[in-house]
Every structure is written in structure tokens, then in C-alpha cells.
Amino acid sequence: MMENNQKNEKPRPPIVVVMGHVDHGKTSLLDYIRKTNVTAREAGGITQSVGAYEIEHNAKKITFIDTPGHEAFSKMRTRGAQAADLAILVVAGDEGVKPQTKEALSQIQAAKLPFIVAINKIDKPDINLEKVKNELLTAGILLEGYGGDVSWQAISAKTGQGVQELLDLILLAAEMENLKYDPQVQAKGIIVEALRDNRRGIVVSVIVENGTLKLGENITTPTASGKIKSLKNFLGADVKFLEPSAPALILGFDSLPQIGEEFLTGEINFNLMEMPLPVAKKALAAKGENSDKIKVVLKADNSGSLEVLSDIIKAIPSAKPVVILGQSVGRINEGDFRLAVGNQALIIGFKTKLDPTADSLQKLSPITIISSDIIYELVKKFEDYLDSFREPDAVGELEVLAVFGKSEKNSSAGKQGKQTVGGKIIKGLIKNQQKFEVWRNEQSFVKGRILNLQEQRKDVAEAGTGKEVGLMVEAGDIIKVGDKLKFFVQ
Ligand code: GDP
Predict the structure, then answer these.
(1) Which one of 159, 199, 463, 472 has the fewest beta carbons within 10 angstroms of its own beta carbon?
(2) Residues 196-206, buried b or exposed e (16+ Cβ, 10 A)?
(3) Quick check: 73 and 105 in contact, CB under 8 A?
(4) Residue 15 and residue 190: Cα distance in Å, rounded?
(5) For residue 28, which atom of ligand 1 is closest to its CA?
(6) 298 contacts: CB under 8 Å, gap ≥ 6
């Protein structure tokens, strides 16, 4: 996953979700905004629901998610996608705060979404604004002007009163969020709707969150993939590319992705060299009672992410039961590290890193840590880890007899350096460019690749059992004499 380059970053429109109790006017509000801000000319007469639409207000764009509020949003939240940047909490002025208002509020809070309260139906005669405001206060919502800083607007989704002011507030709130995207990175976004259509096949609606979504590119989610064979904007017009925060309609998925999943486009390259990926696999199998369970310690940057991580980890199919030993918010610390070491567990970190103590411990005695800021990558890495339990025995093995200095200093987490080592092949045939795992104390803890293979100081393409060879390798500058390099694929 490419990082944003700050120099390329541009502001991106906010993605807004409308939430609230049933019948309080969510659909009416979304319809009103759509009708009054998307012109028929623009729409070319086509009205195609893609689960989201884009408007312009004061020459600025806003994307609205218009799938039925709660359900889609909960799914998105459970799947780890911070789909929206902002929420509108709709409360009907005649009914006030209801159970689903509170439920929506707790979802908004769990996702740490900024939100604006829209008190709706003020065209009705029986409206008591003060009563509603008091109920909001009781529910813990401190409105602006009433001792808090939650902005609010009285509206009528029927007459349109207050709606333009609400849009002003949305733009204001979005500005404070300083939303950015980099048009040059791989496109990333969220699946909003996915369905099977008899005529067109799998039709998927997405919202682009970063990068530039291009026709013809590969697209992947944790559960599905395909190629973008047709790309349409939310008005149904064919386009070659789309930038955030545009809604889009995609044809070309090979299977149905799930609502709320994140997608990535382009060549998805899980660069093994990107970060140390210590894998303590067969060691577990060798340890009797531990062999029947996969133990994990979960760590995430906030409670919303942690909940998502835990849900997803529990949902991943595994040949052995996955047991969560502990889960907490914050950086991976010494306590997590010791818990993992003591129980031969692995640590899974979502949007978090090692703190300095844990980082030093990891250098001294590496354990398995899987981490990423992207849930999709995390899932992939964890699945790879689980897969490793099903791997056959190594097809090749080499014992490291000598290590010849270190190359350019590069052992900090995130980058891996090159190393030259000498060793004896104790099993199988070893080939140049082949990938391997480094094993120490019956534990595999990092993956690597042969960059150059030499026998008697001459480059060779391969070498067999019993031969002594010299290798230049890329494996994080951590290979020591006595380590074994195991080759699982030819
Ligand atoms: P949702 O369940 O939150 O999506 O609510 P709807 O948008 O379907 O609205 C429920 C009912 O309230 C419908 O009969 C709407 O016509 C009505 N309604 C929505 N907004 C307003 C409003 O501002 N004023 C009045 N008088 N009725 C409204």
C-alpha cells in the first residue's frame, strides 16, 4: 500500500451518513437534498441508485451515503471501514429522542464520527424544540448554545426549511476535519452496495476514499476480487476514472464483495520485505497442548478499531480454533509482548505500532507480530499465517555456517537489509531467487529471498544437497550462524 505523498495531497469532499430513529425523516432528507442539488440536466434523466450520491453546495462537493441508515452503517463499522467522515443525526421534532436515536448516537460515538443534529419536521404544528433539546441533553448530546459544541439545525425535509443551513454546517464541520487524498496512490474505498443482476452480473457500488479509481484496473476486497470492466459515476454515466469522495458503480467483480468492506485497486503486492513478518508456526504445533489452538493478542488504535479487529479475527475460518488472550487499545507494549511470549501467542495490531520497549524486546527475541493500518492487509497476513500450518514440510533446507558482515544499516522495523551468508544445503535443491523462511530455535520468524546464489564463488542457478554455497539474501539483516533457511516452494 502506497503512502500518501503530502506534496500531492488535495482536499477531498466529506462523506456523510444520515442516521436516526425510524420515521424521523432520514429518507425524506436525503431525497430532498438529492432533488434540490442534483439537477436533471446533470443526471441526464437517469436515476440509478448506487447507494450514494454527490451534490454541490456553495461550489463544494458533499457525498451522501443513502443506503438505509443503520444497517449499512453497522455493517460498515463492523467491517472496519470508517466509511463516513461525518454523521447527521436526525431527530423528529414532534417525537424527540427515541431508542434508535440513542443507538445511532452510540454507533456514532464508537466510530468517533463528528456529527450534526438535525431536528426535523419543524413544519409541523406540534413541535416543542425546547423539549427535544432537553431530551438530547439527557441523552448526553450537548448542543451548541446549550453548554456544548455539537452543532445543530432545525429543518423540515418536507418544505426544505433549514436544509441549506444544514449543508453549510456540513461543509464547516468537514473543513475542520481537513480531509485529504493523494490522486497518485492506489485507489482505496468502501463497498456500499453489492448485488447480482441477471443481466449485468455482479454490480457493486463503492465510494472512493483515496487515490484515483481507474477503468481496467484490478480491484480486491478481503472476500472478493475482479477487474473494473465498467466504471460509472453515480449518475450512471460511463467514466474512465473517479477521484474521492465520488460514488461509483463497478462491473467486473468475480464474486460478491461484502457491504462495508474496504477495496484496493491495482496490483496488490504484499511485499514481504515491507516489514518483518515473524512467523512462529510449526513451533506451536511442536508444543503439545498448544498445538490445537491459535492464540492471539489484539491491539488497535481505538475502541472502534479494536471491536472491528476482534470481529474480523473471530470470523476468519481457521483449521484450529483462534483464542483471543487479550485485547486492548494503544500501542503494543511490554505487557502485550510478555503475554504473547508466555503463551506462544501472536500479536495482531490494527493501526498501531510497537512502543519503544516492545520494539527493543522484539529485536532481542522476535515473536510473531502481524500489523497493518489496512484491515484487508491484516486479514491477508493472518490468513497467510494460518495457511502456514497447512504447509508441507520444507522442500529445501540450508544451515547457516557463516555470516559475512552486514550491508547498509537497515534493520529498523519497516525496512529490510541485504546480507551475505554461507551455508550447507542439508536437504533438497536450492535455487537462485527462491523465497525462504529463517528458522531459529524451531521457530520461523522472518521471510526472505535469495538475491544471488554462488557455489565456489561462481554464480549458479541452483545447488543440491551436501553443497556449500554463498548467498546474498534479503531477510532483514538478522540471520545468525546456526539459523536454518527453509524453502517451502520451489
Ligand atoms: P425514515 O424512516 O427516517 O427514513 O423516515 P422517512 O423519511 O421515511 O419519513 C417518515 C415519515 O415522515 C414520512 O411519512 C415522511 O413524509 C414524513 N416526514 C419526513 N420529514 C418530514 C418533515 O420535515 N415534515 C413533515 N411534516 N413530515 C415529514
Answers:
(1) 199
(2) eeeeeebbbbb
(3) no
(4) 11
(5) 7
(6) 306, 309, 310, 313, 324, 326, 327, 328, 347, 348, 349, 350
Q: What is the pLDDT of residues 163-177, one digit of tens each?
A: 999 999 999 999 999
Q: Is the pLDDT of residue 298 over 90?
A: yes
Query: In this structure, which amino acid lies at residue 444?
Result: S
89, 108 in Cβ contact below 8 A?
A: yes
Reply yes or no on whether the pLDDT at 216 is more than 90: yes
In angstroms, rounded to a whole number, what is the distance separating the alpha carbons of residues 223 and 269?
Answer: 16
Most confident of 288-292, 344-348, 420-424: 420-424
Burial-class residue 130 by CB neighbours within 10 Å (0-12, 13-18, 19+): exposed
Lining ligand 1 with CB less than 6 A are: 20, 22-28, 120-121, 123-124, 156-158
pLDDT grade, residue 119 (50/70/90)? very high
In angstroms, the CA 267 to CA 186 distance is: 9
From the CA of 94, how far away is ligand 1's center (Å)? Answer: 11
Nearest CA, atom 17, ligand 1: 25
> What is the CA(28)–ligand 1 centre distance, in A?
5
pLDDT value of position 12: 96
Question: What percentage of the chain exceeds 90 in pLDDT?
Answer: 43
Band of the pLDDT at 485, cuts 50, 70, 90? very high
Residue minimizing CA distance to atom 24 of ligand 1: 121
